[in-house]
Amino acid sequence: MYTFTYERPASAADAAKLAASGAKVLAGGQTLLASMKLRLASPPTLADLGGIAELAGICRDGNALVIGAMTRHATVAASAEVQQTIPALADLAGHIGDRQVRAMGTLGGSVANNDPSACYPSAVLGLGATVVTTRRSIAADDFFQGMFTTALGEDEIITSIRFPIPKRAAYMKFKQPASRFAMIGVFVAQFDSGVRVAITGSGNGVYRDAALEAALTKSFTPEAAAAVRIDASGMNSDIHASAAYRANLVSVQTQRAVAKALR
């Protein structure tokens, strides 16, 4: 490592001020610290959010589940409130990385980082959640803007995320064995207004599939998902899987997610 200034702000407002002055915000550190060790990132100042109590916690607010940005993956997975209201979200959190990652990684850190193969962005987008920051509320459809890119400003910090409670939902992940990131992950959520389908791992970032959503809104069955042709153009092709293979995985994982949600 190299020399840097370590700050531990007492409030989200203080953290935002540090971020505005050029500090790098440290949440769970699962990506940032590894990047610093490899010299891929060299922030002069770190602002550790770990001591800000207001940023952690889980509560129900009407027909929404509100989860603080600094809530750990393991906490979400073990929460009785999450298991009762959105069990798919608890299931997703319980299969992120390994036990050590789940003990340290945070919801806000994952969403702000927006890794193109991360699991949480698919839940945020698939559930049509709202990202609440120190400055405003941002709809999920407007938040994710591409690989490692979001609508967050330099002086803006996620404080919590509001997840609407669906009729039913499920997440299916085909994981890359070494990293445990999603080679393909599909989050399916059914609401009275229709179905949302969010896909992670296939390209430059999480996205919704309009064709799958239309088919499943009409008939929420695995057969309806299977009838939708998945376009492989624009999908990643690498040593792990070709674009065509990933397109097939999207179809298969969507069918499995629907079947899982119907159990």
Overview of this protein structure:
The chain has two domains: 5-164, Uridine Diphospho-n-acetylenolpyruvylglucosamine Reductase, domain 3 (2-Layer Sandwich), CATH 3.30.465; 168-261, CO dehydrogenase flavoprotein, C-terminal domain (Enolase-like, domain 1). It is globular, with a radius of gyration of 18 Å. It has helices at residues 12-20, 32-37, 73-78, 80-85, 87-93, 99-104, 107-113, 120-126, 140-143, 210-218, 222-226, 243-261, and strands at 5-7, 24-26, 45-48, 58-61, 64-68, 130-133, 137-139, 144-146, 149-150, 158-164, 168-175, 182-191, 194-200, 207-208. A five-stranded antiparallel beta sheet has the order 4-5-10-6-7. It has a four-stranded antiparallel beta sheet with strand order 11-12-13-14, with helices on both faces. It is built from twelve helices and 14 strands. It starts with a strand and ends with a helix. It is 35% helix and 25% strand. It is an alpha+beta fold and 263 residues long.
